[in-house]
Structures are given as structure tokens and as C-alpha cells.
Specification:
2 copies of one chain form a homodimer. Chain A has 15 helices and 20 strands. Chain A is α/β, with parallel strands linked by helices and 538 residues long. The first copy, chain A, has 3 domains: 289 residues, Purple Acid Phosphatase, chain A, domain 2, CATH 3.60.21; 93 residues, 2-Layer Sandwich (Translation Initiation Factor IF3); 100 residues, no CATH class. In chain A, strands 3-7-8-10-11-13-12 form a 7-stranded mixed β-sheet, with no helix packed on it. In chain A, helix 1 runs parallel beside helix 2 and helix 11 runs antiparallel to helix 12. The longest helix of chain A is centred in the middle third of the chain and has 23 residues. Chains A, B: Its cofactor is Mn(2+).
């Protein structure tokens, strides 16, 4: 498939899950996301792309810090404004494409802004619209005229995805976008035929149909992902956001006969093997109905190396009955880490902006009667050479792992339905729950205070979306805590791995209306063990 | 003094203390600040001003909500962008004037932005720079290219105010700005000659010297304000922000021979007489060294009416010994309120954007053996006719008032210095303090939880500016609580008046370094009675 760039060729820079502000308070890793975002924008400028297409989670936090918003505005203004003319036109009704915007037209056509590289983005699950105002962080950027937020559906009954129709020379692209929606809900809507992709009236088949989506692609539970075959087969290319592993080379779904490109994140947010795959962004060329995806390796991403050791596989080296075996294990791990540090050093790309300290993760399966050594003391040794000294080592037992299943606590036991008329105080329910859950779930208490407040807030508001806000708030709060605030007390209970895979906090709120119109609430925390909806995507 | 507008005349729209986002969650008053901000910008456009000059507190919250930032960006983009050419030039070194900005030049000279009305603003005490990044909400706007934040001094030892030099035709303005600084500190710096206003080298006297400042102007304690005579006498006009009472007509300081214009706020944030003065903004004409300040009445400001009753002044009407006197008083107050509602209705300006429900405040001096009636029941009656039903009535006793003095609690008694080596937990200190303070200070407990968290946050960070952040956070939190979240429990203890004048929460943190380098902390709340630094400015 030939693809000489000419006046008929779209050049599109494709990236996703940039997670601006991730770990921004970490003295070592705090700037990583901003540095790489600038690299991405610089690639766009150097390659003189027609536009940038982002697949969601530009921001890590739903309400990004002032510093993060400020840096983002700075980068967009620096790289995406200028005199280079934009060479494609928009044929669709922009008032429809951007209907929820205060400035419902593409930014490069605004006569007061001099845009050289328009950015189009859907929102992810991290930066999705929340609150009574139903705004998201992207809307700040679009209101400032620096980004085009699209693919937002405002109805929960029915989703009509109406494409932005782009033309450059003789090439026509129908750009479809769908911002993140809870997987279960979207799955249900697909099944119930509530999702429709609208098609241009005249000569349907002359369009290159590009769809960008931000959902679980790999299966996390029965309906907790979006099967590829749910997507219309008239699509030519799907850009799949949310999954952090870089699988950017278009992969053909034989059944649907469309291609899927999964750019992956531009920052490591979980210490899992998927994140160790080299990070890339894509330079997509589209001419007529032909396309080519060029990989661009990101040079400023902090290197991440992960390896596994199974102690039981080295009977020659480790004998559980040997009193000094633990020292032997520790020494062995240290050698390993040293080797990984060497590899990391060799693999650095010599880009002055690439951070020096690598992220190192050594997973030690100590099944077979071995004892873990003190991770804390081990970490001390690498304080100055590793970006994540606190969680270099992760001990686990494979057998243990196998046994783990998705189990939920039984709330009926924990929270009994109140007698008619009586009003249960939400706080009491929560307390009651925590008291019962405590033994089982060490961590739950850590969020109790936040809990009380959050629920209070919800009760004050009595708005539907307050529930969502609340859940998001709780999840973020818990994850934040686990990531940033963890104390020695919980140190050995948690590590990066478990955080992602084992601890999966969900807030369940059941409420029904009393005759007098007052709401009564059931509140419960669900601590799921085993795979979580967040696996691999932080 | 004649002032025909011509190519030598600057037309400057002057406003301050717009407090965007004030009470944004109030179902009735939530939009007031946004509506009036749009009116102000519309006046600027209709009058084809050369620029807008703001005196600080554009935002009410240091970290404004997403909605507030979004609305602000929307308004600025709508009103301040366009093709009308800007007709003045800047002669000073902009890299100096805007040295802390990522885009250190005035927005209308940015070739990528089409600005028709440049906005220049200093920051106020509400939206001043905080945090490790030392950014303020205005910096988001300036980074987006929609506002020019100036008058920021980054040193605490020495303040050199270097003016922005503007020229239009034959008129030259030296624009000096000084963003809000804690009054005591700035007072001290003035006394110690640490504040210098730089002057243009060539023909000093040909400049019209305009200075905008955001500090206490009226005396709140010995050094808790900035005396006018502190300001250099070469200044021609001072635009004084922070004080909410509109005294916009230039008032001559005979000693210094300069004029002072105090525009006042564009929204009522405290139910004090000063806020009842009709709200205006100014249209300042400057030609050569002559000026004229034109008052523009704001038409969208919610009307506010305040009156006092002294029961003891009506022996004919009220006899404390009469068993039914309380009903009589209540009936009398109701008549009063009805009359005030009539006046309010008459005084509405017929602008469709002006909110209908007025703010009403009736202050009742019940000294002389009278009893207050239930404010709560009284409020019910006006739920649908008044914007502030909960605090229409304010009972007070004049004698009582007289007795009140500035008293601070003695912390040595409350918090005893820990024995060498022992480490006191901050939370314990706070608890300890609250337990002791409780009897004296009913309100302190309301913020205890927030307290615990805030202090925790500080402890995590161990940054100097975290303390400031923390104090600000606490003050805001408390004020917010008093304004928005107050419950019947505290209803009669607080009202708008006392909130401003009597309750004055301050967080005191003393910390010293242990031999081992650990910090030990003393934390205490100071609840001052009597005048507070916040009097009259919310």
C-alpha cells in the first residue's frame, strides 16, 4: 500500500493516555508527564501534521491541579499556535459536532486564534465530565480555544455518534469519537442497540472512517469491556485509548475487517509488564481509503524494567532450611537489580530530556517455604539510583495468586434494611460496614473519614450525578492514598502490583424514596479481590 | 479640567473585587458574579476603552471551581477578543513587567491572539499566588492569553515596583501595580523603606502616574492597613482595591496631593452598610496629565437594603413588661421588611439581567430588656421574596457591642511545650486545644475535622509556603462554612454581621527543629473577638 505524502494525504499524530499531572508531587517523577507531552507536541510540529488526535486521559486527575492546567495551556499555546496554515476543511455541521461547547466550532477556524495544529480529543475515564456543570478538564482547554473536545454524548438512553467530516484534497475522513463511559453501561447499550454511528448521506463509501474510543479492550469480567465486534464494520481504523500497553501497529480484526491501533500510554502508571513495552506514538497517513501508521518512539519516557524470580526454580541456590537463605535471596535480588540497572543505562536513548533514574520492578515468587526480606531496608540502597526505591521488590506466592477470586462482601449481612419510616444515618451505615469489614479489609478504614464527608456532600446535594462524583472521588482518593500517602504501617500490605490488581474499592449506594419524598440511603463499600476494572490502567 | 476624547486620550475601564464564583452553589445568588462580570466587559466594549484595569479579587476562591474558571475564560474570550485595533503602545521592557509569566509580553501584541481589549490585573488577597508553584488563578488566564497579570513582587525582602509604560498619541501613562500582600508585612516594609517605585529615566514629569493596589485602606488595628501617606507623592491617581464600598469619585489626599479612587466590589459579599452603597465601575479618561473619572452604575447587581431599629427608641410602641411585646416587635419588623421590599422593587433598574429577589438586612438593637424572636420562623415568610431569607434579621445589643475588645486565647495554657525528645502529634495538639477552647469558642469545633486534615497535609509537605496555604485554606473553609453550610444548630450563634466582625479564625503554627532534624510543631487556633482583618471585605 503506497502512501506518498501529497496534497491529498492527511498526516495525523495519534497519541493517548498522557496522564498530565500523574505523580506531580513526586520529587523525582513529578515532571515526567509534562516533559513527554512537550515531546509529543514537538513531534507533531516537526512532522507538520494536519492535526493531533488524542484518545483520552490527557489529564490524570478529574480536577487537575492549577500547575497541571497551567503547564498544559503553556504547551498547547507554544506548540499548536502559529502561522502554518491548516490545510483541511470541515464539511460537517460543527454546531452538532461541538454542541456542548460555548464556542461550537473548530478552534483553527476561529478568526481570533492563530492555530497551526488543531488538537482533537475525546475524554477518558480520568478526565471525564462530572458535577452539576457537567464540565471536564478538557472543556477548560476548549473554552480557551486550544483544544477541540469532541465525541461527548450527553444522553444515557441513546448514543448517536455523528462524525466530524474532514476533507483534504481528494481524501475525506469521517472522524468518530466516543468519550469514556463506564464499561458495563456502554456494553449494555451496545447490546440493546442504543449506540448508533451516523453516516454521511452522499457517497458513504468514499469516506475513510476513523473511530477513537476510550474503554477496556481486554476482558475484565463478563460485561466490563467492549468486545471489538460490537463496533460497526464500516469502520476502517479504530484508535483504542485507555489500555496502557503500546500495540500501535494496526492489528486486523478478521471478523469485522477493520484495523485497531492501540497507542498505549506515554507514561508508566502501573508496574506491570504491559507498561514495560517501549512507548510510542503514531504518525498516521491517510490517502483516499489507504492508510499507513508510522511508529514514533518516545525518547523522554522514563525507562521501566520488570523481571520475575521464582525462588523454587533455584534449588541449587536457595534451600529453605538454610538459616542464611534469606541473606542469599537478598544478595541474589541485589545482583538482579544491578543487572537491570545496567540494561536500563544501556537502553537510555541519549535524549537529554529523558530522566536518568529508571523505574525498576523485581517480582519475587517466594513460594516453597521461603521468607520475604525487609523491602524497606533493601529500598534504602537504591534511594539515589532508582526512581521508585520504595517498591522495587514485590514478593508474591504463585499458589496464593491462583487461589484469589473476585469475591465481594455480603452487604445484607453488613447493612440491614431499616424498618419502614426509620431513617438511617448514612454515616452510621458506613461505620457499621467498616466495623464489620475491618477484619477482612485492612485498608478500608483508611478512607473512612473521607467517606463520611463525601457521603455527607452527596446527601446535601441530592443530585443524581453527585453519586458518580462521589464514587469517582472515593476511588481517586483511595488510589491517591495508595500511590502517594502510604505509610510504613501499610507499606508491606500494599505494593504497586497489589494496588492495581487486588485492591478495588467501589462505593455502592442504594436509595429509595420514602412516602414523604425523603431519600433513604444504603451505602456500602465493595472491596473486590482479584482482577479489578483498573487493572493495567492505573 | 477639560477632557474631550481624541487620539491623545486613554479610555480605561476601572473595576475591582468582582469575586467570580462567590456563593456559586447558592441556588438563588449562584450566578450573580458571572452576570455582573459580563455587564462590566460589555461596558468596556460599548465604550471602546483602550484597556481594562482590575484591582484584584477577580476570583473569590484562591482555587476557583472548574465552572468559575470556565465561565471566566468564556467571558474574556467573548468580550475581549476581536478585530478592533488596540491604539496604545508599550514602551517599557515587558520582560520585566511580566517576568514571572511563561509568555512575558502583553497579550494584544501576541501575533497568535486577536485581542481587542487588553485586561490588566493585579491579584487580590482572595486570588493571590500560593503553593510550591507560586501560581495564582490569574496565571491560568494569562497563560491562556486572555489577561495580563502584573504588579507581582516575588521577593519578601524588597519590593521594586517597575511601571508598565504606555503611550497613546501624546499621552504617557506609567502604570504601577502591587498585588495583595498581608497588610502587616507590607506596612512593615513601607516603614523599613523596602518598597521602591521606579521611575522612567527621561522626563519623569511628563508621565501620568497611575497606581493600583489591593490592601486595607481603613484602619484595622495599628499596622493592619496601608496609610495613604505611605504612597509616593509623585503618583497622580491611586486605584484602591479590596475595600468593597464604592467611593469611586477621586478623592484628594491633600497631604500627598494625589487622588484616590476606590471603585468597590461589584457584588455584595457582606451585609454591612458599606455594601449597600450603589455599585459602580469607572470610565477613566486620561489626556496628558489630566484625568476624568466617569461613574458607570452597574445595572445587574442584586439590590441590597439594610436598616437599623433601636427598640429602646420606641417606648410608645414597645414596653418590655408587656407579655405580648415580642409579637409586637415581630409585627413591626415585618412592616419594616415589607417597606424595604417596596423600596427595593422601586429601585430596580429594569435591566432584564438584574436578579429580582433583593438582599434584605434589618438590624435590631434589642437592648433594654427585650427578647429576640425566632429568626428561623421569621425567615420562612420571605423564602420566596428575598435572596437571603436565613439572615434577614440580625439582633444585637449596642451596650454589648461596646464592651467587645480584641482578645486572644492564651496558648501556653492550652498547648504545653513537649519535653525534649518527645514528639507531639499535631492532631493531639489540635484536639487538646479544641477541648480547652471549646467552652469559650463554640465555633472552633466546626472546623476540627478539616483542621486535622489540613495540618496533616502540611506535615506531609514540610514546605514553608504550605503554612500560608494551610492558613488560607482554614480561613476560607471556616468562612465558607459560615456562609453556606451553617445549620440551625449554629444559626442563632452566627449571623452575617458577627461572621465578619466577630469571628476571626487564625491558625498559628510554631515549629522548631530537633537535634535529629525532625520538626516539632505547635499548632493553635486563635479566635479573635472584635474587629477582624476581614471586616467589610468578606
Amino acid at each position: 500500500m503506497s502512501c506518498l505524502d501529497d496534497e491529498d494525504t492527511f498526516k495525523i499524530l495519534v497519541a493517548t493516555d498522557i496522564h498530565l499531572g500523574y505523580m506531580e508531587k513526586d520529587p523525582v517523577r513529578g515532571n515526567d508527564t509534562f516533559v513527554t507531552f512537550n515531546e509529543i507536541l514537538d513531534h507533531a510540529r516537526k512532522n507538520e501534521v494536519d492535526f493531533i488526535l488524542l484518545g483520552g486521559d490527557l489529564f490524570h486527575d478529574n480536577k487537575p491541579s492549577r500547575k497541571t492546567v497551567h503547564s498544559c495551556l503553556e504547551s498547547l499555546r507554544k506548540y499548536c499556535m502559529g502561522d502554518r496554515p491548516v490545510q483541511f476543511e470541515i464539511l460537517s455541521d460543527q454546531a452538532v459536532n461541538f454542541h456542548y461547547s460555548k464556542f461550537p466550532w473548530v478552534n483553527y477556524q476561529d478568526e481570533n486564534l492563530n492555530i497551526s495544529i488543531p488538537v482533537f480529543s475525546i475524554h477518558g475515564n480520568h478526565d471525564d465530565p462530572t458535577g452539576a456543570d457537567a464540565l471536564c478538564a478538557l472543556d477548560i482547554l476548549s473554552c480557551a480555544g486550544l483544544l477541540n473536545h469532541f465525541g461527548r454524548s450527553t444522553s444515557v438512553e441513546k448514543i448517536d455518534i455523528s462524525p466530524i467530516l474532514l476533507r483534504k484534497g481528494r481524501t475525506k475522513i469521517a472522524l468518530y469519537g466516543l468519550g469514556a463511559i463506564p464499561d458495563e453501561r456502554l456494553y449494555r447499550m451496545f447490546v440493546n442497540k442504543q449506540v448508533t454511528m451516523l453516516r454521511p448521506k452522499e457517497d458513504e463509501d468514499s469516506w475513510f472512517n476513523l473511530f477513537v474510543i476510550h474503554q477496556n479492550r481486554s476482558k475484565h469480567g463478563a460485561t466490563n469491556y467492549i468486545p471489538e465486534q460490537f463496533l460497526d464494520d464500516f469502520i476502517n481504523l479504530v484508535v483504542w485509548g485507555h489500555e496502557h500497553e503500546c500495540k500501535i501497529a494496526p492489528f486486523k480484526n478478521e471478523q469485522q475487517r477493520f484495523y485497531i491501533s492501540q497507542p498505549g500510554s506515554s507514561v508508566v502508571t502501573s508496574l506491570s509488564p504491559g507498561e514495560a513495552v517501549k512507548k510510542h506514538i503514531g504518525l498516521l497517513h491517510v490517502k483516499g481509503k489507504k492508510m499507513k501508521m508510522e511508529k514514533i518512539a518516545l525518547e523522554t519516557v522514563r525507562t521501566f524494567h520488570i523481571e520475575d524470580i521464582v525462588l523454587a526454580d533455584h534449588p541449587d541456590l536457595f534451600n529453605p532450611d538454610n538459616p542464611n537463605v534469606t541473606q542469599a535471596i537478598q544478595a541474589f535480588c541485589m545482583e538482579k537489580v544491578e543487572l537491570m540497572l545496567d540494561t536500563a543505562e544501556r537502553e537510555r536513548l541519549g535524549n537529554p530530556r529523558q530522566p536518568e533514574k529508571p523505574i525498576i520492578r523485581l517480582r519475587v515468587d517466594y513460594a516453597g517455604g521461603f521468607e520475604p526480606f525487609s523491602v524497606h531496608r533493601f529500598s534504602q540502597k537504591y534511594m539515589h539510583r532508582v526512581a521508585n526505591p520504595k517498591d522495587i521488590i514485590h514478593f508474591f506466592r504463585r499458589r496464593e495468586q491462583k487461589e484469589k477470586k473476585e469475591i465481594d462482601l455480603n452487604f445484607e449481612k453488613l447493612v440491614s434494611r431499616p424498618a419502614e419510616g426509620t431513617t438511617l444515618r448514612v454515616e452510621d451505615l458506613v461505620k457499621q460496614y467498616f466495623q464489620t469489614a475491618e477484619k477482612k479489609v485492612q485498608l478500608s478504614l483508611l478512607t473512612e473519614r473521607g467517606m463520611g464527608e463525601a457521603v455527607q456532600e452527596f446527601v446535601d446535594k441530592e443530585e443524581k450525578d453527585a453519586i458518580e462524583e462521589l464514587v469517582k472521588f472515593q476511588l481517586e482518593k483511595t488510589q491517591k492514598f495508595l500511590k502517594e500517602r502510604r505509610t510504613d504501617a501499610v507499606e508491606e500490605k500494599i505494593d504497586e502490583e497489589k494496588k492495581i490488581c487486588l485492591i478495588h474499592v467501589e462505593l455502592h449506594i442504594y436509595y429509595y424514596c420514602e412516602k414523604d419524598g425523603r431519600y433513604n440511603l444504603f451505602v456500602a463499600f465493595c472491596i473486590g479481590l482479584g482482577k479489578s476494572t483498573r487493572t493495567g490502567q492505573a
